[in-house]
Amino acid sequence: MLIIDSPSNDAYFNIASEEYLLNKYPDQEIFLLYINAPSIIVGRFQNTLAEINLEYVSKNNIKVVRRMSGGGAVYHDLGNLNFSFHAPSEVDDFLDFSKFTQPVVDLLNGLGVQAKLEGRNDLVVDGKKFSGNAKLARNGKVIQHGTILLNSEMSVLSEALKINPLKFKDKAVKSVRARVTNLIEYLPEKTTVDSFKKLLVDQILKENKDASIHQLLPEEMEGIKKLASEKYSTWKWNFGVSPSYDFNKAIKVSAGFIELHLDVKRGIIQNIKIFGDFFASKPIEELEEKLLGEKHETDHIHQILSWANLTDYFGNVTVDEVIDLFR
Questions:
Q1: What is the pLDDT of residues 180-225, one digit of tens each?
Q2: Residue 59 burial by CB count (10 A; 0-12/13-18/19+): exposed, middle or buried?
Q3: What's this model's pTM, rounded to 2 decimal places?
Q4: Which of 70, 83, 72, 75 is nearest to 40 (CA)?
Q5: Comparing C-alpha atoms, which of 158, 201, 199, 165 is closest to residue 181?
């Protein structure tokens, strides 16, 4: 087993590293650890916009990254340690999450924390979740990865994942919000994310006699960066591959009431209808036509609307007011 501690806090890099290492070491067991700067990691089959508070996420420069595995959306920050096991699929029961969560449970139990696996894929203490886990099988291997909330900003977590369920109508799997807690409240005084990470590495070394520390090689770093640039940092992957959905929102501005309805497929606006009690000198269908076939992405729509004289369509409004319709 190779134990790899990522040198990066970039979520694009770290999520890309899972796919890169899967392909680079097809026959090798791997234990990967990484810590991300503020980011939201969404499941492979989720509608990204239906999982995040886009306005809050954009304002606070929180990265949004889609991972390879299914499951729900999670918030990462520097108080959150993430682990990832890669193993041959023949040595793993895909529906059993206990094998690769057990080292975490063993470590915590040894520190006096009564942690346990509960339900299908959650680690809990005092009935509150501190770790969610997800799995995927590919190329004869299985990857199981999980989060460990140690000292995460809970208020940011709550706001970043707070969405309006009335905006979206789709069949994508939705995240189930559970009561969560930081482990720092249960761990010995002066425990940090880094010190806990070291303890977890020691636990893995103790339980796996063939394990060794592997530093990412320069060519591996470059390969991961390339994959992050070409896939994991792109709008197409993180938003565009979302399942089809209907999007609805209404706002009240000085010009009147404006209501938006969108049909979106693979991130592209297929149908659009704008209603309201505003007064317009030009038919609203002209504006609808400009947006048809465009990406449902705020910055992109902002560029389009900046070239239009919105007063002709809505009366006295600003671009920023109309943009709020699309968030």
A1: 899 998 998 889 999 999 999 999 999 888 999 999 999 999 999 9
A2: exposed
A3: 0.82
A4: 75
A5: 158
